[in-house]
Design brief:
By secondary structure, the chain is an alpha/beta fold. The protein is built from 10 helices and 15 strands. The protein has helices at residues 3-17, 22-29, 33-45, 68-73, 76-87, 102-109, 124-130, 155-161, 186-198, 236-243, and strands at 19-21, 49-52, 55-58, 95-98, 118-121, 137-140, 144-146, 151-153, 166-171, 175-176, 180-183, 199-205, 217-221, 227-229, 248-250.
Length: 259
């Protein structure tokens, strides 16, 4: 087994159990104590875990929202892949609710070949991206404008959303665990909840780095998500956690499809 494969399994075990023991990992991988110690040291250097006597624990990251600039420049290839895969789920003539975010922005960019879409969004950036597509109708929600993000939220946004029922709602996330979707901004989380309630099909889009993380505010249980679109860096084992809950997971590498 390659070291990278061991790293992924160790992280998956930490997400499940919060702790791993050196002795158990040695038995599982059939390698020496020195090999496991090197693995844990490497993962600690990557800020994935914290070593303790006899093992390691999951490193809890502070629930602070990364800046828009940082999010915009991270995982650009993966987000483009997610955007392309999500666009395949959209049919000509669909009505969509699209959440703010850098991943949902990539989804918007891949929708431009579609016809006769109605897009409702609380993101000025996404509205600007799509407003000039000739057959699209873009509805920008009102609300309190957030600097830098150029997003709209608050009670006005929530009330406006309640007037619509759409074919598909597409949301981003600050964190995804087996049980819930979470994010950082309280008012934006409330808008997401309203969007979810308005969609016949709910699609969550997120790169692999968001899985296993908990952000500040709970958005919804994963049971309210119909489809997750991610990238091929997400391990099959992690994807299977959601598949077992009845969620369709798209974009990860399925070992059964690798020749």
């Amino acid at each position: 087994m390659l070291a990278q494969e061991r790293y992924e399994i160790i992280i998956d075990l930490l997400h499940e159990n919060k702790i791993v023991k050196v002795s158990e990992l040695c038995k599982k991988f059939e390698v020496s104590i020195e090999t496991i110690r090197r693995d844990l040291e490497y993962l600690e250097q990557k800020n994935k875990l914290k070593r303790i006597y006899g093992g390691a624990i999951l490193k809890e990251e502070p629930a602070l929202e990364p800046s828009y600039t940082k999010r915009y420049t991270e995982y650009t290839r993966e987000k483009s892949h997610i955007g392309k895969e999500t666009a395949k789920l959209v049919e000509d003539g669909d009505s969509l609710m699209i959440d703010l975010g850098t991943t949902t922005l990539e989804v918007a960019r891949h929708l431009k070949e579609k016809k006769n879409l109605t897009i409702i969004t609380n993101s000025m950036v996404i509205a600007e991206e799509l407003v000039d597509v000739p057959t699209f109708r873009v509805i920008l929600l009102g609300g309190i404008l957030r600097p830098n993000e150029l997003s709209l939220s608050g009670s006005i946004s929530e009330q406006l959303i309640q007037n619509f029922t759409v074919d598909k709602t597409i949301i981003g996330a600050g964190g995804i665990t087996a049980d819930m979707i979470s994010d950082y901004h309280l008012e934006e989380a409330r808008v997401r909840r309203a969007m979810i309630e308005s969609g016949r099909l709910v699609i969550a889009v997120s790169d692999h780095s968001k899985f296993g993380k908990k952000a500040f505010v709970k958005v919804c249980p994963t049971s309210q998500i119909d489809v997750m679109v991610t990238d091929n860096q997400l391990s099959h084992k992690t994807a299977q956690l959601y598949i077992d809950k009845g969620i369709k997971v798209i974009g990860y590498t399925d070992p059964s499809e690798v020749k």
